[in-house]
Amino acid sequence: MRRMRGTALAAAAMAGVLTLAGCAKDSGGGNSSNNTAASTGGSDCVTAQKPPAAPAAASSSTAAGAKVDGSQLKIGLAFDVGGRGDASFNDAAAAGTDKAKSELGVTTVNESTASASEAESAKQQRLDQMASQGLNPIVAVGFAYADSVKAVAAKYPNTKFAIVDDDSIQLPNVTPLVFAEEQGSFLAGVAAAYKSKNCHVGFVGGVNTPLIQKFEAGFLQGAKTVSSKIKIEDEYLTPAGDFSGFQDPPKGNAKAAAEIAKGADVIYHAAGASGKGVFDAAKAGNALAIGVDSDQYNQKTVEADKDVIITSMLKRVDVAVFDYIQAVAKGDLTTLPKRFDLKVDGVGYATSGGKVDDIKDVLDGYKAQIISGAITVSDKPQK
Q: Which positions carry the signal peptide feature in this UniProt record (predicted)?
């Protein structure tokens, strides 16, 4: 997990961002008036002009080279709380190993899932057991594994480890897979403001940690960048250290319902499996919702609520996990990006269901500004 910038620096950056964004938007081409928001119901909320049109996208450089053979790899996948089936973070990691099976010929993937209240020793034992069984590489899903990965990787220097959402471990056999969650969440905030009829949106975080604060920070900044009038509800399910916030749909439901009762009509969650409760509350309260990590509109476990899911902030853990496994199979880890951000499509937004098609040019315009550096997104919430 990257270290946060100081509060003063973040505040200064935020002020600069808003000024820059306003100036950049003034030069936007085409019929870019606020009236473009009318069909979204947010025309009275959006106070910023549209950003300049994004430059024509170059075709993605996922060139198919020589076939990579991963058939000799035996992969260990240590899930965070919720495991496969959480319709979010862990499912994205599982999708990465599933793709490795179909495209690289991997035949062995052993999975194990953390429980919400397990001791650190249980995580260490899980990884130790995988390494002692000859699994290699081992992927730990989530920053909660940091201490255990550090201990076990030192014990097994010939086993390769990757850890999602942590870059604190300085060992040659450990590869960090970290993301610019704040950048993707900025786009979620833009979408929320454009789609809100009440100019009132909400954020529900699972556990109040520096990692989830990155989602919160981007969302707040994105919403405020496009609307000077936006009102934002901002809540967490559990404090730092209580990871049950990622696996408590009833609590997610209650928190989202309370935000909706206050007037919020678009809710963005970064709460893992608890997001199911957020979606349920949005549907019951005639509100809209924004998913996280995976394209939740297409997730079977939340299928009953898909009609209220307008988009999802894509955190491409699946891409990072697959790319890591492929790099291990090729014997070259230097090809991996240091951080999976908008520039490398490591984060993004989903378009399934067509509910943000009318503002896609807006979202892509802001995406281009972030990639170019015209907008710097803070990873610390500015309230």
A: 1-24
